């Protein structure tokens, strides 16, 4: 510990790089915890919906949804989520938010959390991950 200050002064570039890398590694995790978002893999999402009477909420556009979607999912496009969220009557029901890749789903999940929905999950990787897991889609 006596040499820590000397090490930092002599290797300031290395120390700076370490701090930046540590921030990059942990910032996403910390932001998710603070925002209340919980990521789920495709198989975890299926288990949650089946065992806890959850609901898949697809926030893609109607055209995207009509091309392919997860069975029994409901389509609430992100653009109109504010008004359409009234279709989700039980704020305690687990919701798995789905989009093509996961970007829109995170935004939608934050909106739903602000509206009082308590169990909001994001399908990590979106429908791309769903397809990689070789899970069925309907059109």
In short:
The chain has 139 residues and is α/β, with parallel strands linked by helices. The chain has helices at 4-10, 12-35, 42-52, 62-67, 81-84, 103-114, 126-132; strands at 38-40, 55-58, 74-75, 95-98, 120-123.
Write the layout of secondary structure elements.
Blueprint: H1 4-10, H2 12-35, E1 38-40, H3 42-52, E2 55-58, H4 62-67, E3 74-75, H5 81-84, E4 95-98, H6 103-114, E5 120-123, H7 126-132
- Widest sheet: strand ordering: 1-5-4-2-3
Number of strands: 5
The CATH homologous superfamily of the largest domain: Rhodanese-like domain
CATH topology name of the largest domain, in short, is Oxidized Rhodanese, domain 1
Number of helices: 7
Rough outline: elongated
What is the CATH-assigned architecture of the largest domain? 3-Layer(aba) Sandwich
The separation of the N and C termini measures 63 Å
Structural Rg: 20 Å
Can you tell me the residue ranges where pLDDT is under 50 for at least 5 consecutive residues? Answer: none
Look at the structure and give the CATH class of the largest domain.
Answer: Alpha Beta
| Largest sheet descriptor | 5 strands, parallel
Topology as a string of helices (H) and strands (E): HHEHEHEHEHEH
């Amino acid at each position: 510990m006596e040499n820590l200050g000397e090490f930092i002064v002599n290797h300031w570039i290395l120390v700076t790089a370490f701090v930046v890398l540590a921030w990059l590694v942990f910032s996403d995790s910390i932001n998710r915890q603070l925002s209340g978002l919980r990521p789920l893999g495709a198989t975890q999402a299926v288990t949650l919906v089946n065992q806890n009477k959850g609901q898949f909420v697809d926030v893609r556009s109607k055209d995207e949804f009509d091309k392919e979607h997860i069975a029994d999912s409901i389509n609430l496009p992100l653009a109109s989520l504010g008004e359409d969220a009234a279709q989700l009557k039980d704020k305690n029901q687990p919701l798995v938010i789905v989009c093509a890749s996961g970007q829109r789903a995170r935004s939608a999940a934050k909106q739903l959390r602000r509206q009082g929905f308590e169990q909001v999950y994001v399908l990590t990787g979106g429908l791309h991950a769903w397809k990689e897991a070789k899970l069925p889609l309907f059109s």
